[in-house]
Design goal:
Elements: H1 2-8, H2 13-26, H3 29-42, H4 47-60, H5 63-76, H6 83-96, H7 100-113, H8 118-131, H9 134-148, H10 153-159, H11 167-176
Helix pairs in contact: 1-2, 2-3, 2-4, 3-4, 4-5, 4-6, 5-6, 6-7, 7-8, 8-9, 8-11
Length: about 180
């Protein structure tokens, strides 16, 4: 549909946001970044455009630039019902730079808005594992695995973002939290 929309009006930034996200979920992160950059170029005042770019950059392994984009999202919409998404983006970008303490701080802001979000719980487990906060990490791990039902690292890899630079870093954090896979 996004490609058909391009044929109608290639100047609308949301078409490129959708293309970026579609390519992201297919695991084609380079194409996701390209579409995200086009979305930002067409509307540099859109947090949505920067969000699509930040997601793609982070999982491609360009965490520093992903951090910049996430911080722009937060500046563009400091009061937003979806603020937790931008905080999570920033937490992921910081994780990708191995800045675990800062990442956990941002993640906890997102978790305060969405305390039952299993994805956020998983990332909290990862970060606590990396930080060596073993007791907290084990408690989170038990809850996380209970909700997700992973039994192996391969299960995790199958359900996580295809071709993500964060996959093995996340698995390392889960192992440090006590997951014996």
């Amino acid at each position: 549909l996004a490609n058909r929309a391009l044929g109608i009006d290639a100047r609308h930034f949301r078409i490129y946001v959708v293309l970026s996200l579609a390519n992201f979920w297919r695991g084609d992160l380079n194409k996701a970044v390209d579409a995200g950059r086009k979305a930002v170029a067409l509307n540099p005042s859109s947090a949505e455009a920067y969000q699509s770019l930040s997601i793609a950059l982070c999982h491609l392994g360009v965490a520093h630039e992903a951090e910049e984009c996430a911080r722009i999202c937060l500046k563009l919409t400091p009061i937003d019902p979806s603020l937790h998404r931008f905080q999570f983006l920033l937490a992921q970008a910081l994780l990708g730079q191995r800045r675990f303490g800062e990442s956990l701080e941002q993640l906890m802001r997102a978790l305060s808005a969405r305390p039952h979000d299993v994805v956020l719980l998983g990332h909290r487990t990862v970060l606590l594992g990396h930080l060596g906060r073993t007791e907290e990490a084990r408690a989170c791990l038990g809850e996380y695995l209970g909700k997700r039902g992973f039994s192996s690292a391969d299960d995790y890899r199958k359900l996580y973002v295809r071709n993500s630079a964060l996959t093995e870093l996340n698995l390392e954090g889960l192992r440090k939290a006590g997951w014996e896979v």
